[in-house]
UniProtKB/TrEMBL annotation:
It comes from Halobaculum marinum. SUPFAM superfamilies: Pectin lyase-like. Residues 1-27, 358-381, 419-444, 486-568 are annotated as: Disordered. This is Right-handed parallel beta-helix repeat-containing protein. The lineage of its organism: Archaea, Methanobacteriati, Methanobacteriota, Stenosarchaea group, Halobacteria. It comes from the Archaea.
Amino acid sequence: MADSHTGDDERNERPTNENEQATASANRRTLLKGIGAFATVGAGGVLASEAASAAGDFGDYSSPSGEVTIPAGEYTWDDDDLDIGSSDALIGGGNPGDVVVNMAGGTMDGNISGRFENIVIRGDNKDSKSGIDVADGAVIDGFHWPEGGQQSEDRCFYNPDGGTRATVKNSSWAWMVNNGAYTDKMPMTYENCASINNNIAGIRVGHRESDTSDVTYIRNCLIALTQTPEYDDTNSPHARGIRMRQKGTFVIENCYFVYLDVDGAADLIEIHDGAEDSDVTIRNCAFYNDTDRDLVRDKGNGMADVTIEDCSFHGSGSDRIEPDYDGNGLVDKDVTFPLPSEITGYKVADEAEGVGAGIGPWDGSSTGSTSTTDEEDTTDPANYEHTLVLEASEENPVDDSATPGDFDLDVFVSGEATFGETAEQDQDSITSTSDGGSQIEVNNLKPGELDSFRFNGEVVDYMMDDGYDVTVSLDGNTTTFAELVGEETSTGDTTDDSTDDSTDGSTDGSTDDSTDGSTDGSTDGSTDGSTDGSTDGSTDGGSTSTDDLTKRVVVDGDNSGRPTNYTFTVSGDVVRDEDASSRTADGTNWDRVQDFAQDGQVIGLVGSGVDAYRFSGNITSVTVDGEATFTVERGL
């Protein structure tokens, strides 16, 4: 089927399109939690102002020329002009959620024709009628507004004109008064998005000023109404989930709808009379409905061509589907409804009011799997260590010899594996290998299509058809197969992830022979013995001795073994303190993952072990995503 990976060209990387289980997300609350978790030992201590000193004016970055990265930190929106041209990009730096913009005045609006990535807006609108104009070619990736506008005529996104396509992914919006996403003039792609408690419609689509034969895709999205939505004197509370307002071709797949019995609940999916001749496909969606409203309503006199396949119904309300349709409709299967963070990969998405434990299907009453197999729960991430997401390029095939939709690849992992929510179980397969691992066989991955899998252990090999391109995401972090199996290394890391399981000396000694390998070679291979080779100390031509660094950060992981992702930046040098670091006896994978440091910044992941670092200067920023305890010791 496929050629060996050893002859493949280097694959292009794009931002991930599905982060079912991201561990790198951070937001304002986790930042403040990290600062508050500091315990000071010895003289001095860390002041919160040191860690929160990155605040600035968003207006300094909001009209980029070319590609501009806004440094991780908190900023203020005070009627700033957001304007991103078709050849421009504004990208939030750091980890997902590390750039936070606080509403201080004016209206959160602007124009986007280029790329807008990794930006969190906090606070409600100060003036009415918010809305980012999303123009042809725009790509919005990792935008979150948990508080929403909450003012007259507010919406999060709006199409000013028609066009070929705009894309919104890995994003969330809540509490908009006049449509969450008001995008009914051109084909749209929504992937891995969450719409929470928005009035009129969570997502409004149509091809009013574009070719109606083009396709709007809404994939792997969560649309929820759990509280009465905000409204104003121009409307009333009447919240549809997805509303097809104008004629077009629409595909809604792998989506979750959660509608509780609250004032203002409307139909979960509505085909408006303006979309009466549309072609609508709804497949593999899960409906949790406690209301008497329709799952699917057709206001277009039955003229739409509707297909409904492999969907499921849960809850105490209506399971009515109004239009005639092709396909098997509703089928009986258990479903675990994900939280917004699991859909988007950003923990800040869970901070929208109205979602969380004890609410609707998130009370644990609806559990199980979207799979029809009884052997294992394929949606419970606790059963598997890793989530692998694959997205075929929209541009496949990339040469004349490739056949569209005939893209096959095999992934070999060292442990057990199972299907994720977007796997095609009727085409893909998973088999055990003789060495105790698993072979994941992906067949006929079509352009733009997503497949996801969960597995234990590591990716050890892969085989992929020539002439195709695929984006790879592991645990919410974009990577490549070559990097996963050790053919190339990520920026700032001098060793391969594939060597993490080989306990110690050989790893560090072979990769860091220009620095103090004799010291690192005797330490824990799971930690970044190679970190010393990429820190500030080594950039001067040699390693920095820990004796010269009189301060220490200690990150003590959670005893449960759950991973904590953390970053911190210092104004001086930083190296790992191997003597104060430890890996737990159970050898959890989190404790074997390498951390790395560069230019004074440490990026780490700890399970139930301890990571320690010696440093000089001051700590200038901190993020913490998890339950680890941060301690700073001074005067060593």
